[in-house]
Amino acid sequence: MRFRLPVLVSLLALAAPAFAQEPTFSPDAIRADVTFLADDLLEGRDAGTRGYDIAARFVAARFAALGLTQAVKDSWYQPVTLALADLDKTAPAALTIGGQRFANGTDVAIAGFGREAKQSIAAGAVFVGYGLQSDREKIDDYAGLDLKGKFAVALSGSPVGMPSEVGAHLAAEKALAAQKAGAIGLITLPSPSLLARMPWDKLRERSNDPVVSWIDGQGQPYVRTPAIRATATVHGPAAEALFAGSRGNLAAILEQAGKKGGRPKGFALQPLVTLERASSVSTAPSANVLAMLPGSDPTLAHEYVLLMAHLDHNGVKQSAKGDDKIYNGAMDNASGTATMLAVAKAFTEGGARPKRSILFAAVTAEEDGLLGSQYLAKHPVLPAGGKLVAVVNLDMPILTYDFQDVVAFGAEHSTLGPIVDRAAQSVGVALSPDPLPAEGLFTRSDHYRFVQEGVPAVFLMTGFAGPGKAAFEHFLKTQYHQPSDQIDLPFNWNAAAKFARVNYAIARQIADAPEAPRWYAQDFFGDAFAADQPKAPSPK
User: Global pTM?
Assistant: First the structure.
């Protein structure tokens, strides 16, 4: 048995009545957890399926064995009823533009809509450039345009060269901006950069998948933009039909959009647009799995640090190439869940409880649109007076190599950055800047649902130093969202234990720090979601 040196000295001096045990991180224990969660028996842990429920019960059993506290009264589970909106295939969806009818699945992609069973919506349309709006950034693509009761027609994404995280956020808020401007629908034009990454054939295939949300307090599928009643994506002849007779030229607009800083201006379109579709909604029960470790400090215990990982993956897909149809998700995200469990174990065996309380969460339906985390963010489980002060999200750490550094997406936005840096260094690991800024990864995983509620957050992954970049790119190219993401990948279980140690050090430092994390002054996300909260001086 080993002891932390300061504690051992105190014991020898008879100056302290108790000591903290150094936590251990077992490579074999992490391997066992990943092996179970990625087993074929769980059929890819798709949210709302028996396989996911088995995984949820496994995590709950682990929480109970560790002696953690149930976060929901008399339960380890926060129920989340998922709503799946499918198109009614007996009434084919279509978009009619200026009298030309485009059937769904041709040059038009239309998905199901859960809040109206049958729709026939006719309205004018207005091209709105990229359709972005931000008072802070002095961007308003809707300025001078009349959108009331009309379709907004917007390019996908954000302008080439816009700061990536800001651009990713504004692009994700596109429907909200359209709603604010008075639009009733949003039609998207794939930008040249999007089509370069994802051909039209793949984009339109997505309309065949159910649109998943969760059932709100009114019994309706939850949507952030209830006034946006119709959405579609158009390409080729359908896109050209939208611009027929208008002063703007589609080819020129797309050429401008493909250039750095290109910002096409908006204008009214001539054709009348009619969207027709029928949808049906089915529901599926699922749950977030939650546990708490109460803090030890009477003045800080009401503040909570959330350590989370998504438990779901992509289930079984008959469309998968080859004989293997199960998307086991060993790296995405059995590895993150196993890391969270290892950190929870470390806190329970470390002797000295953290000063702040810790909430552990294995969340559902990340793959369907960050839904379990959204539900948790909108329906907090903290006791009266409890406050969530920080989020650390573990999603798809690549554990095939002995990593030398970690990346904390979002570290530069709040005082979480220096905390993560110090914690990583204490384990002999460097903190590196975002190696993929163009991807806007800070906005693309579960922690972001809490950022939207004003809570500082980071998203932890293994870094790109040494063999890291090659390992990440190889996984992304050959295993990401494929049946091959399974337990026979060349896992480095010692690296997995080291990653758990790093995350424990991070969570411990956040929990024991004298002050809770704060957004930096003049930070985009702090200003957008936590304008009234006290800020830390900007380090820039």
Answer: 0.93
